[in-house]
Design goal:
Largest interface: A-B, 69 and 64 residues
Strand content of chain B: 15-25%
Helix content of chain A: over 70%
Number of strands of chain A: 0
Radius of gyration of chain A: 24 Å
Strand content of chain A: under 5%
Structural class of chain B: alpha+beta
Oligomer: heterodimer
CATH architecture of the largest domain in chain B: Roll
CATH superfamily of the largest domain in chain B: Dipeptide-binding Protein, Domain 3
Number of domains of chain A: 2
Number of strands of chain B: 21
Number of helices of chain B: 14
CATH superfamily of the largest domain in chain A: MetI-like
Order of helices and strands of chain A: HHHHHHHHHHHHH
Largest sheet of chain B: 7 strands, mixed
CATH class of the largest domain in chain A: Mainly Alpha
Helix content of chain B: 25-40%
CATH architecture of the largest domain in chain A: Orthogonal Bundle
CATH topology of the largest domain in chain B: Dipeptide-binding Protein, domain 3
């Protein structure tokens, strides 16, 4: 187990360095000079040169990359070109918003999908099951971006349940913040929910046909007891892996949904920083997202190992 | 295991319910402010398409979107009014001596900075010298200030600015903000003398301003202003309709149509920029004046207005727009009527009878320029000219097309930094660093130099008009329009004023 975690961590470190390098390379290749983007078309050559020196752009590529890497290892991601403040401070301010949004959508998703899938599995072939399956199929086909616009329009402009664009920070008013984030969270959660229901339902049905289930019934267990006690435990393994992937997907979903719902999280910063060529910020955000994705995957692996002794033995 | 699973399930269901329930209660809470006029009375939320720059230092600001907001926080010795006249601001009066070689200003009595300190002549000297870089240690922040010889404090109420060469245009450069010498952090701590003072900001979220109650002039009507950043253009109308934003400037005609029949009033003004298909005059086919003229005959600005802009906008024929008043020559807009035969004739004379192809580079963040370029492409097909559109990011456009002059044609809008004709015409001098179209014409250079040397207003105006006429007759660019500027303002508010410069005046807004 220790060795396994260690190799995983080493791989993780290597992946992050690769990603960081690729982002650096991309910015070196694509056109667009950050100094020019900041000073505008009317800039005098002297001011441009001064700005480039201040941004460190006059140094060669490798030197820039390694000095960035050295700083990053020590937790110093440099200073943002367009905001003049430390990148870490910006991320510290904006990341909680994105994490809150992702967390909420994840909770909504799991809280709804698990009971629904158990219900449909229990009543396989019934009217409710068939209706839910059709609705499920439709929801899966809707892209999150479109779902976001639809929700804004329906709940925001027609029903007036919330006011699109009126985000308030958690510090200002926790309740209003959570209420506002509830709607983008639903938009992110919906398609994932549908997928989880589909997966868990079929996983449950597969398990329910196995021998040990028959034995459980013959021992005198009732349907609910068998489902929650025996079947769910076995059926949940593939779902955990899937949920891990979904969680990382949801972070990406938040980045998009922040645009639609005007939520000032990490996604807004990322998109605006790309167009202003503010690469200390882009670099740090992408590395951070990579880190989150890899960690979640690692965590899922570990959870599976803990819940399922079979995987432990195979390794 | 069973119990734990149940507990987790129960907890997650509970959490969802709590959130859903708080959604209902929050809804009621959200209704209160609009029902209670005292809370809402003197505040307005204004949407802006991008965040302000890192630095709120008025001398360092370069983005038009930042400068137009800073107009409310800072003032210069003089400031423009809505008709484009320079009116005294930090100075209460001024005199121009020696035919424009010395400008003398009298400091306004009792004028205060936002931190409550008195504005002194020292602050004026500091601010002007900071931009002019008279010490030679920093960088020249205002190009026109290279003409400043010295700033002299005459007495504690009077400051004289001595120029190296006489200039009658110089007053309009003195809108440069006066900031306190004692402020050690002008970038983060914005202190000016304007009708609004800076309160706080949150990156990519909002900027908060509040009325400066000790303002020397007519105080602003609305107390609190929140500038909310709406980076996604598709969300502008949604946010306006939902009431989370009360005002948005420069919306498109489509967005204006979507807002028809809602609580919004659409104000129509002009953008004050020269939208044209700028032609790189050193690109091979465009070196020939006949080819450039042919394009002018083939492109119909009226069709562009009708198809792309609901007929709104002012057709122009040279690098000058109507807000400039006396300099503007309306007759130049009819110089080339749409005439396909004539265009074809000119093309075959130039040896391009079978047509040719070129690329129009357009910055992808300006939908209005993209729309215009698309119509131009269609119009040029009639004379067998095959144009293709190349969309590039704004940063790329600035670097490659504008600074690098590496383009064939581009559709953009060029604005004026000050209200002097030179601000628009200087760039077409053969050796100007801003001459991104590589225009080169001796008569033009001579006329421009004549305008600069002239001290007589009439003569100077005539020279500038000559410049405009040369640009039009030489078909330096395919001139199109000064676009309509549409502002959506909730009917609860009134008083929006258009300026002939790229500024937003929040002080004139009021609640009905």
């Amino acid at each position: 187990m220790k060795k396994y975690v260690f190799t995983k961590l080493a791989g993780m470190f290597f992946t992050i360095i690769c990603v960081a390098f690729l982002v650096f390379l991309a910015f070196a290749v694509i056109p667009g000079d950050p100094a020019l983007a900041k000073l505008g078309a009317q800039a005098t050559p002297e001011r441009l040169a001064a700005m480039r020196a201040q941004m460190g752009l006059d140094r060669p590529f490798w030197e820039r990359f390694f000095s960035w890497l050295l700083g990053a290892v020590r937790g110093d991601f440099g200073t943002s070109y367009s905001y003049g403040t430390g990148v870490s401070a910006i991320i510290a301010e904006k990341l909680p918003v994105t994490l809150l949004l992702t967390g909420m959508s994840f909770i909504i998703m799991t809280a709804c999908s698990i009971p629904i899938s158990i219900y449909t599995a229990k009543h396989e072939g019934g009217l409710a099951d068939r209706i839910i399956l059709i609705v499920n199929q439709v929801i899966m086909a809707v892209p999150p971006f479109f779902a976001g616009i639809l929700i804004t329009y329906l709940f925001g402009l027609i029903l007036h349940w919330f006011q699109p664009g009126s985000y308030v920070s958690f510090a200002q008013s926790p309740v209003r913040c959570l209420v506002y984030l509830f709607f983008p969270a639903v938009a992110i959660a919906l398609p994932k929910m549908a997928m989880t229901v589909k997966l868990l339902r079929s996983s449950l049905l597969d398990e329910a046909k196995k021998d040990y289930v028959r034995t459980a019934y013959s021992k005198g267990n009732r349907t609910n007891g068998v489902l929650y006690h025996h079947v769910l435990k076995n059926a949940i393994i593939p779902v955990i892996t899937f949920l891990g992937m979904t969680l990382t997907d949801m972070i990406a979903g938040s980045v998009i949904m922040e645009q639609v719902f005007s939520v000032p999280g990490i996604g807004r910063i990322l998109v605006s920083s790309i167009s202003s060529r503010d690469y200390p910020v882009v670099e740090a955000v992408i590395v951070l997202l990579t880190f989150i994705v890899i960690s979640v995957n690692l965590l899922c692996d570990l959870i599976c190992r803990i819940t399922d002794p079979r995987i432990r033995r195979e390794a | 295991m069973k119990r734990r699973m149940k507990a987790i399930l129960a907890m997650s269901v509970l959490l969802t319910l709590t959130i859903a329930l708080s959604a209902c209660s929050g809804d009621k809470a959200g209704e209160t402010p609009s029902g209670d006029p005292s809370a809402d009375e003197s505040s307005i939320t204004i949407g802006i398409p991008q965040d302000l720059e890192e630095s709120l230092d008025p001398h360092m600001a370069v983005a038009a979107g930042t400068k137009e907001i800073l107009f409310n926080i800072y003032e210069g010795l003089v400031k423009p009014d809505k008709d484009g006249n320079m009116v005294p601001a930090v100075a209460s009066s001024y005199t121009v001596e020696e035919g424009g070689k010395t400008y003398t200003f009298t400091l306004r009595d009792g004028i205060l900075f936002h931190d409550g300190t008195q504005v002194t002549v020292e602050d004026i000297k500091y601010s002007i010298e900071r931009c002019a870089d008279t010490s030679g240690e920093g960088t020249l922040l205002v190009p026109a200030f290279s003409n400043i010889e010295s700033v002299e404090i005459v007495d504690e109420k009077t400051v004289s600015i001595h120029l190296k060469e006489a200039s009658t245009d110089f007053l309009s450069e003195l809108t440069v903000a006066i900031i306190p010498k004692h402020n050690e952090d002008p970038a983060g701590n914005a202190i000016g003398t304007g009708p609004y003072r800076y309160v706080s900001r949150s990156i990519q979220e909002n900027i908060v301003l509040t009325r400066f109650d000790d303002y020397w002039g007519t105080p602003a009507n609305i107390k609190d202003i929140t500038l909310r950043i709406i980076a996604d253009g598709d969300m502008i109308v949604t946010n306006l309709k939902s009431g989370s934003v009360d005002m948005f400037c420069r919306i498109s005609t489509d967005q204006a149509n979507e807002l028809a029949g809602t609580d919004f009033e659409i104000y129509e003004g002009t953008m004050n920029l020269v939208q044209a298909m700028y032609l790189n005059n050193s690109f091979e086919p465009f070196q020939d004046i006949r080819v450039r003229q042919a394009l002018c005959y083939a492109v119909s600005p009226q069709e562009i207005l009708d198809l792309g802009f609901d007929g709104k906008g002012t057709i122009i024929g040279s690098s000058m727009f109507p807000a400039f008043g006396k300099y503007y020559l309306p007759e130049l807009s009819d110089l080339y009527g749409k005439d396909i035969e004539k265009a074809k004739e000119l093309l075959s004379e130039a040896g391009y009878g079978d047509g040719f192809s070129f690329t129009i580079t357009v910055p992808s963040n300006y939908q209005q320029h993209i729309d215009t370029a698309q119509i131009i492409v269609e119009q040029l097909k009639e004379i067998n000219v095959d144009a293709t559109i190349n969309l590039v990011e704004w940063g790329t456009w600035v670097e490659e097309a504008y600074t690098g002059r590496n383009f064939e044609a581009t559709v953009v809008g060029v604005d004026a930094s000050t209200l002097t004709a030179g601000a628009l015409l200087e760039r077409f001098r053969s050796d100007s660093s801003k001459n991104f179209i590589n225009f080169s014409n001796e008569a033009y250079d001579a006329a421009y130099a004549g305008a600069q040397a002239s001290t007589d207003d009439k003569e100077q105006t005539a020279y500038y008009q000559e410049c405009e006429r040369i640009l039009a007759e030489q078909a330096a660019n395919v001139y199109i329009q000064d676009m309509a500027c549409l502002v959506a303002l909730n009917k609860k508010y009134g008083g929006y004023e258009f300026y002939p410069l790229y500024v937003q005046d929040f002080a004139s807004l009021y609640i009905r």
